[in-house]
């Protein structure tokens, strides 16, 4: 994602229209537990919330929607739950890809592919290939994603180029590193939403979040809908983004 010294999203006219919204979809397990249901049911209902939010995103003028669907650290969960989550991803792509494509959604995937099952990798690649020319909405799926790991992968590539004599170490700066992140052409998120009341990033987009507005929502992800997205965007619109400069009224 963009790492320019002036964030690409700063170019948008007004703060009330976030071009890039990123969501930490949290609270599926607690949603289920509160209803005496298995955690897997919470995850299944979480996919329904995701469908609603993808539909709502374009209607609300969002160009890029990044969703955190499985973190590098989620491997520490029981194997059965990991199986449930991977099963849901498989089903989501198999069932929803045609609809996403018809609706003009371009699917991108960020995160580590190495070590994933071959069938998952080919589904992810199929989704990216089929939708690559779509322009209505970029849906960026963070799967097997960790921000530290992403930054470390970028640093490793830069170090390799320097070791091979193809790069002067003095050219390694924030711009250069940002170019080697997983989706360097996508502008930084304007707004990051986390559901379930937790107030942390959990290794999500830490580089790209430098000037993102953070909105924490108490509701669990399966309850999230268009109205909740609109209210997070309304909260965002009340914020004043300064990017290290002066407030617009002070500066003019
Ligand atoms: C989010 O819900 C889904 C993933 C992390 C994959 P959780 O499964 O984290 O639900 P809680 O936080 O335990 O309620
Ligand atoms: C973050 O949620 C990961 C995803 C939403 C995919 P977690 O539930 O894994 O985060 P922690 O463990 O509460 O920080
Ligand atoms: Mg959680």
- Spatial gap, N to C terminus: 30 Å
Classified in CATH, the superfamily is Decaprenyl diphosphate synthase-like
Oligomer: single chain
Shape: globular
Mean pLDDT: 94
Which percent range describes the beta-strand content? 5-15%
Number of helices, counting only DSSP H or I runs of 4 residues or more:
8
Question: How would you characterize the overall build of this protein?
Answer:
This protein has 252 residues and is an alpha/beta fold. It has a single domain (14-146, 188-236), classed as 3-Layer(aba) Sandwich (Undecaprenyl pyrophosphate synthetase), CATH 3.40.1180. The chain is built from eight helices and six strands. The protein has helices spanning 28-33, 39-59, 79-102, 118-130, 147-163, 174-179, 226-238, 248-251; strands at residues 20-24, 64-71, 105-110, 137-145, 191-194, 213-216. Strands 3-4-2-1-5-6 form a six-stranded parallel sheet, with helices on both faces. Helix 2 runs parallel beside helix 3 and helix 3 (79-102) packs parallel to helix 4. The longest helix is centred in the middle third of the chain and has 24 residues, at 79-102. It is globular. The chain starts with 19 loop residues before the first strand and ends with a helix. The relative contact order is 0.22.
């Amino acid at each position: 994602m963009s790492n320019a010294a002036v964030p690409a999203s700063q170019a948008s006219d007004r703060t009330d229209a976030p071009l890039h919204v990123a969501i930490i979809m949290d609270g599926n397990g607690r949603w289920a537990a509160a209803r005496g249901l298995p955690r897997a049911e919470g995850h299944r209902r979480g996919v329904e919330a995701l469908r609603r939010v993808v539909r709502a995103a374009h209607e609300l003028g969002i160009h890029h929607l990044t969703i955190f669907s499985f973190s590098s650290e989620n491997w520490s969960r029981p194997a059965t739950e990991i199986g449930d989550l991977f099963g849901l991803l498989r089903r989501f792509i198999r069932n929803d890809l045609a609809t996403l494509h018809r609706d003009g959604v371009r699917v991108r995937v960020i995160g580590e592919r190495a070590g994933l099952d071959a069938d998952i990798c080919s589904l992810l690649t199929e989704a990216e290939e089929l939708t690559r020319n779509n322009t209505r909405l970029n849906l960026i799926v963070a799967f097997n994603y960790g921000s530290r790991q992403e930054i470390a992968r970028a640093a490793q590539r830069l170090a390799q180029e320097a070791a091979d004599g193809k790069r002067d170490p003095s050219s390694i700066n924030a711009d250069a590193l940002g170019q080697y992140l997983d989706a360097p052409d996508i502008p930084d998120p304007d707004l990051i939403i986390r559901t379930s009341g937790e107030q942390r990033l959990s290794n999500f987009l830490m580089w790209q979040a430098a000037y993102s507005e953070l909105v924490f929502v108490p509701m669990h992800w399966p309850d999230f809908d268009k109205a909740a997205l609109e209210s997070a965007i309304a909260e965002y619109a009340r914020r004043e983004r300064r990017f290290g400069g002066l407030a617009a009224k002070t500066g003019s």
